[in-house]
Design goal:
Layout lengths: L1 H7 L3 E7 L8 E8 L14 H14 E9 L1 H7 L1 H15 L6 E5 L9 E4 L7 H22 L7 H4 L5 H10 L12 H5 L2
Parallel strand pairs: 1-4, 4-5
Antiparallel strand pairs: 1-2, 2-3
Helix pairs in contact: 2-5, 3-4
Length: 193
């Protein structure tokens, strides 16, 4: 009986990141410890923007703890996207107001002293990872929307820094900005000229 009580009282954080494949902007990770179930959770990429925002609000109101980690383009260029993603996740975990007993990570485990497990497609299976996916996506999308007003020619409002045709055309015409990842193609070929 004590085992069941201890298991139920365990704090489990879900962790996910967004922005790995973008040409511009940060990679953003979130760590979320849910207090109770939130209906409608899913992978942030599989739900509409309107539903994602509503779920974001529910998670922010009802989670036990939420934290976010960022790694910007210069960090990504210095270390590579895999390392930057891992470090953003670790930063988010370290910022949680409650220390989790276990961490469930979308994709791969992390080299940290807290027990953790990588779950392939965890953002489609584990509610706390789904919640982290939504928090990270909404946060990153807002960041990229704000950059649209500084650099409107890249259409960040719509592409959020990913390599759409309009974004790539703007890169050819205007070159890159300080928020672009200079080690990512096609930007890296512009840098080496």
């Amino acid at each position: 009986m004590n085992f069941i009580i201890n298991f139920i009282s365990m704090l489990i954080a879900g962790v996910d990141e967004v922005g790995r494949g973008a040409l511009a902007g940060p990679v953003v990770a979130a760590a979320v410890i849910l207090k109770n179930d939130i209906k409608g959770l899913n992978d942030s990429k599989k739900i509409s923007e309107l539903k994602r925002q509503a779920l974001y609000n529910d998670i922010m109101k009802n989670a036990l703890s939420i934290a976010i980690g960022f790694k910007w383009s210069n960090y990504i260029d210095d270390y590579n996207i895999k390392v930057a993603s891992e470090h953003a996740m670790i930063d988010a975990i370290n910022e949680l107001s409650k220390k989790p007993d276990k961490i469930m990570v979308d994709g791969f485990s992390l080299d940290i002293p807290i027990p953790n497990e990588g779950i392939i497609k965890g953002d489609q299976k584990i509610p706390s990872i789904m919640a982290a996916s939504i928090i990270a996506k909404v946060t990153r999308d807002e960041i990229m929307r704000s950059f649209h007003y500084i650099y409107p020619m890249y259409d960040f409002l719509n592409n959020k820094g990913y390599g759409t045709t309009k974004h790539r055309t703007a890169l050819q015409k205007f070159s890159f900005t300080k928020i672009h990842r200079q080690t990512f193609e096609p930007i890296s070929s512009m840098v080496s000229k």
